[in-house]
Amino acid sequence: MNINGKAQKVNTFDAIVVGSGISGGYAAKELCEKGLKTLVLERGRDVRHIVDYPTATLNPWEFPHRNRMPESFDKANPIATKCYALDEGTEQFFVKDAEHPYVQEKPFDWIRGYQVGGKSLIWARQTQRWSRFDFEANARDGAAVDWPIRYEDIAPWYSRVEKFVGISGNKDGLETLPDGEFLKPWELNCVEKHIQKRVADHYKDRHVIIGRCAHLTDPQQIHYDQGRAQCQARHLCYRGCPYGAYFSSNSSTLPWAAKTGNLTLRPDSVVHSIIYDDTRTKATGVRVIDTHTRQMTEYYARIIFLNAACLNTNLVLLNSTSRRFPNGLGNDSGVLGRYVAFHNYRGSINATYEGFADGYYYGRRPTTAFMPNFRNVNKQETDFQRGYMVAFSAARSGWQRGSAQEGFGADFKEKLTDPGSWHVYMMMQAETVPRYENHVRLSTHEKDPWGIPQLITSIDYTDNDLKIKDDFLQQGAEMLEKAGCKNISPYDDHRNPGLDIHEMGGVRMGRDPKTSMLNGHNQLHSVKNVFVTDGAAMTSTGTQNPSITFMALTDRAVSYAVSEIKRKNL
Ligand SMILES: Cc1cc2nc3c(=O)[nH]c(=O)nc-3n(C[C@H](O)[C@H](O)[C@H](O)COP(=O)(O)OP(=O)(O)OC[C@H]3O[C@@H](n4cnc5c(N)ncnc54)[C@H](O)[C@@H]3O)c2cc1C
Ligand code: SF4
């Protein structure tokens, strides 16, 4: 690792971004647009928009196993195959269990996408803003620490991100789920509208809306300029969309950054740690392991954005030790790796609806109906802390249903084309309250294939989470009953934490350097040229799908970092 002056110059950039997923892609776009020569380091392989989506247009019968994974794969990947989105058409975008080991002190299903684009290729694209209640929650009930920002601080950044990304949605005027800059909304179908009305009739504080999602229902010039086009409602999104109709780093932010001429993207580059210079009291760069040659190289920059996704960002910081920071970079407070939280998805409800036999719907809508949290919003009113969002959808069963499968000849074929009865599926997305005990740390003896210490996950549910789950199962069933549904079956699937794929925390924002890692601009309190703007920065989890908030925090932090560079503070 003897780097001469020339090589050092070649390896020096204005900014380094670690990770090319949802938040890293956004950081790259903003940094490059603002004129900074930016190096994006991505541990996974390159995935080029369109050309590297080999399954995007395949029919089920064109897959060797009809789009299902063979048993041998399931056996070899007990963690990854728990994710509903993994099948023969998408498996190339999911981490395989054996290739990237970690230690589960308590069961935690860590679902990952290691490639250019990260999980932006395989996310479900739901994008609900946080509300003022979410940023105030910790201060209100005294859990964890107070957020150093409020809704007003982030609202303009949500707007900027929404316009660029393209978010479809309806302006519902709800304080618990603020409106944004929306493209045309998707439509609720007739049974969902019926449930919406019945819920409104019975509960003044519960509102059913169509989910806001990162799909181009009505592309604007800014989206055409990115080379993207209108969504076709095919819902094959997890394979990569050849139209670029849903937002991914690959279709949107990375090509946009590349167009500026300021982007250097280096796939197959695992960031091992951040280099800290004790004399200059700042971070100077990162150590990178090439996944092909296994060689370690150093890259240098004035500012570093960590966007490796929550748990990997924790890992990189924990692994960045120096004389000044023996317990991980910026870890003066001792809270690095602590207060990791997630979303509780344990409860779901199935039901049927008799009626609307002449009702159907257009295409395969890539979103669902939502109900923003209605628990403990203005004051504490239950015996549990916080609350949950409800998501549900209604659909008619298809030709695969049991009763359609018997018969012969023309009558049989005719019967197969009839849609079956309506069924409703409802699920919860509950907040979990960050706790000191829920943490990640580095193993002292287990290493990954690159010689980096493996991450230990020690994250669990609490009694509060179980109470929330019971409340959802009871309230959800009651709402479906009031809506006239039948055969209502509440279900606790006892899933492990992690399978929600909304892990957050460990490098939390806060006002006080003694109890938090980052300030209100996502800047390490004690290493000012390092910014963390992925889920690791979150001080609490809210009940909303989190990625749009990661992007808004990123946009805001980049703007701040660049202004600090201009003021010569960085
Ligand atoms: C099936 C599924 C459905 C989801 N649905 C939604 C949804 O509807 N709404 C929502 O808001 N969120 C959803 N999510 C979660 C969403 O994908 C994540 O919140 C989001 O991708 C996080 O963005 P990120 O930039 O932090 O991480 P990622 O997008 O995961 O990107 C991180 C990148 O960093 C790279 N990396 C990691 N470690 C290193 C290292 N040491 N060196 C170099 N590179 C590294 C990774 O390879 C990866 O490319 C879903 C996720 C999945 C899998
Ligand atoms: S539903 Fe829309 S975003 Fe998804 S694959 Fe089809 S066209 Fe692309």
Please provide a brief summary of the model.
The protein has 570 residues and is of the alpha/beta class.
Walk me through this protein's architecture.
With 570 residues, the chain is an alpha/beta fold. Helix content is 24%, strand content 21%. The protein is built from 12 helices and 22 strands. The protein has helices at residues 5-10, 22-33, 71-76, 132-141, 151-165, 190-202, 221-225, 249-259, 310-318, 409-416, 463-482, 547-566; strands at residues 12-18, 38-41, 103-104, 167-168, 182-183, 209-210, 263-266, 269-277, 282-290, 296-306, 338-341, 343-344, 347-353, 369-371, 388-396, 422-431, 439-447, 453-458, 486-492, 504-506, 523-524, 527-532. Strands 1, 2, 7, 8, 9, 10, 21 and 22 form an 8-stranded mixed β-sheet that branches. Strands 6, 12, 13, 14, 15, 16 and 19 form a 7-stranded antiparallel β-sheet that branches. It has a 3-stranded mixed β-sheet with strand order 3-18-17, covered by helices on one side. Helix 2 packs parallel to helix 8. It binds flavin-adenine dinucleotide (FAD) and iron/sulfur cluster. Flavin-adenine dinucleotide binds next to helix 2, strand 8, helix 9 and helix 12. Flavin-adenine dinucleotide (FAD) binds next to helix 2, strand 8, helix 9 and helix 12.
**Ligand set:** flavin-adenine dinucleotide, iron/sulfur cluster
What is the molecular shape?
A: globular
Q: Please give the share of residues in helix.
A: 10-25%
Distance linking N and C termini = 27 Å
pLDDT averaged over residues: 96
**Count the helices. How many?**
12
